[in-house]
């Protein structure tokens, strides 16, 4: 029973972290002045801006989401190690 409760808690925390990271990332994208709904409104071929392929964009999004996960994990670890007192 103890093992089952640990596993269920672990899956619950991972799911919440994953969904939260996606929301945080999309919120940060919306705060970017030149980006709305995932498209760069400042991209102009005459100015030399290049458009990335969908695979490159997915890789960039994944890398940034991993960085957000590491930051949240670091903050939570510091909080747990520091204790209440």
DSSP strand content: under 5%
Helical percentage: 55-70%
Please report the total strand number as a whole number.
Answer: 2
By DSSP (H or I, 4+ residues per run), the number of helices equals: 2
Evaluate the radius of gyration.
18 Å
Runs in which pLDDT lies below 50 for 5 or more consecutive residues are none
- In round numbers, the mean pLDDT is 78
Overall morphology: extended
Q: Give the strand order of the largest sheet, numbering strands 1, 2, ... along the chain.
A: 1-2
Note the main sheet: 2 strands, antiparallel
Q: Measure the end-to-end span.
A: 32 Å
What is the N-to-C order of secondary-structure elements (H for helix, E for strand)? Answer: HEEH
> What class do helices, strands and sheet pairing give?
mainly alpha
Number of domains: 1
Multimerization status: single chain
Protein described:
- The mean pLDDT is 78.
- Strand 1 and strand 2 form a beta hairpin.
- It is extended, with a radius of gyration of 18 Å.
- The longest helix has 30 residues, at 2-31.
- It has a two-stranded antiparallel sheet.
- It has one domain.
- The chain contains two helices and two strands.
- By secondary structure, it is mostly helical.
């Amino acid at each position: 029973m103890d093992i089952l409760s640990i596993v269920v808690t672990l899956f619950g925390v991972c799911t919440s972290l994953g969904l939260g990271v996606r929301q945080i990332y999309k919120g940060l994208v919306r705060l970017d002045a030149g980006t709305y709904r995932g498209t760069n409104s400042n991209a102009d071929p005459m100015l030399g801006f290049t458009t990335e392929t969908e695979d490159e964009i997915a890789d960039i999004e994944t890398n940034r989401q991993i960085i957000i996960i590491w930051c949240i994990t670091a903050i939570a670890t510091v909080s747990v190690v520091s204790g209440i007192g």
